[in-house]
Amino acid sequence: MKPERFNALHASLKVWSDELGNLLIEAFHYLALFVIGASIVWSAVFSYIGMMSQGHATIGDILLLFIYLELGAMVGIYFKTNVMPVRCLIYVAITALARLVIADVSAHHEAGMGMLWVSAAILLLAISTRVIMKPPSDNG
Questions:
Q1: For residues 50 and 83, what is the distance between their CA atoms, to the nearest angstrom?
Q2: Residues 64-85: tens digit of each pLDDT
Q3: What is the mean pLDDT of residues 110-121?
Q4: CA 26/CA 36 separation, integer angstroms
Q5: Do the beta carbons of residue 83 and residue 45 sit within 8 Å?
Q6: Residues 89-108, mean pLDDT to the nearest whole number
Q7: pTM for this entry
Q8: Kind plus residue range of the DSSP H or E element containing 122
């Protein structure tokens, strides 16, 4: 076999294998997003059913539904743009920490040092959303 023909065959195999690899990665990507999205919906529905069976919803339950909402929005944004929306992750973290503070206050009925640290973490996350959303300054 001539080297030119071998090189052409090698290039053809490389292009074919790259395309197949990209197809498999994209198929796994969509399958994983579907599974994650379905899991979020499934968890939210069962949480809501639990609230309905109790006959009432606490503020912690409502915040949990907001966490599910943000996670669903994050999956939807990632599905459409292939870009991980870091802002949504920060919102989920803020909501989860707020839920933790509410649960801690309702359980202990007092503010401790832990609440100060959680509040500082919420403030830091809120500042980070501002930093992420701030447009780059024009240095010209």
A1: 33
A2: 999 999 999 989 888 888 888 8
A3: 83
A4: 15
A5: no
A6: 84
A7: 0.72
A8: helix 113-133
